[in-house]
Amino acid sequence: MSSPRSIIIDTDPGQDDAVAIMLALGHAEALDVIGITAVAGNVGLPLTAKNSLKLLELAGRTDIPVYAGASAPLMVPLETAEYVHGETGLNGWTFPEPTTALRPEFGPDFIVEAVMSRPPKSVTLCPLGPLTNIALAMAKEPRIADRIDKIVLMGGAQIEGGNVTPTAEFNIYVDPHAAARVFNSGAEIVVMSLDVTHQALIKRAWLNELAGLGTKCSEAFVGLLSFYERYDEEKYGSDGGPLHDPTTIAWLLKPELFKGKFVNVEIETTPGLCFGQTVVDRWSVTKRPKNATWITHVDADGFFDLILDAFRRLG
Ligand code: BDR
Ligand code: CA
């Protein structure tokens, strides 16, 4: 059996970020989470960092180091999303205060150190929030772009339209300048945008199955996800809200569940109506160099089975 792939999860938990973390931890035979870097996004940095610690404690994985990263986007004021995730970022379940501490290093410094000290192409980055930490790491050490294996990120939208403006998705909108830097870095990038995550809807029957596992983690996540999906169900008028961030981890575990296309993606950073838009050149009309695999389809049943499987293993 091959050794697990080393990943760094860069995150702003967030209930869907939380599921992504659990999905990775529940498949430890395939994925080795070598560190978690927190970024400001859904809520402010003090909370996203604390939430990362809380999640690792729930999963019994306090061996994984957590680093606080950027507390604000590169060039614009931080916009948060308590209206989706609640004021703690993890409303829906009451966690005990964490007893473990953050590591003292700055998140982007950890990313640089981890990537540069390990063999080339041996670390994968999974950003689940605004791309500020990744851009700062690339600014400090541009060689990481070539040295990482790939970046599998959640962000952006084309066909589905935006969720914070008509054209922009939250993670890219919050820090478009960081996103522009990352998309133009030359790193191999796989993108889970709203075009695909809007196919991954949390159904009540699935939540019942999760509840049926009867474990500590499953109980917590039924609470978290029931809170989380109330907002999107109302917004989209759908049966179940989209579970965005775990699609990144699922792609690493089972890429055969997904379909996509290698395209050019540019980020709109000019202030105005389309600020933060991912401009996807689906049909190569610009002839700009292709820089990202834009995922367009997911087998939703296979995706949700994989998550249940992770919770079964976590206990
Ligand atoms: C993204 O924004 C956040 O609210 C979610 O955690 C996800 O990363 C979806 O637009
Ligand atoms: Ca997120």
Question: How would you characterize the overall build of this protein?
Answer:
- This protein is of the alpha/beta class.
- It has one domain: Inosine-uridine Nucleoside N-ribohydrolase, Chain A.
- The chain contains 13 helices and 9 strands.
- It has helices at 15-25, 45-58, 82-85, 107-117, 132-140, 144-147, 170-174, 176-183, 194-197, 204-212, 216-236, 246-253, 300-314; strands at residues 5-11, 31-38, 66-68, 123-127, 151-154, 189-192, 258-267, 278-281, 292-298.
- The strands form 2 sheets. It has a 5-stranded mixed sheet.
- Helix 1 packs parallel to helix 12 (246-253), helix 1 packs across helix 13 and helix 4 crosses helix 5 (132-140).
- The longest helix has 21 residues, at 216-236.
- The protein is globular, with a radius of gyration of 18 Å.
- The two termini are 24 Å apart.
- Beta-D-ribofuranose (BDR) binds at residues 14, 16-17, 42, 81, 84, 128-129, 154, 163, 169-171, 244-245.
- Residues 12, 14, 17, 41-42, 128-129, 245 line the site of calcium ion.
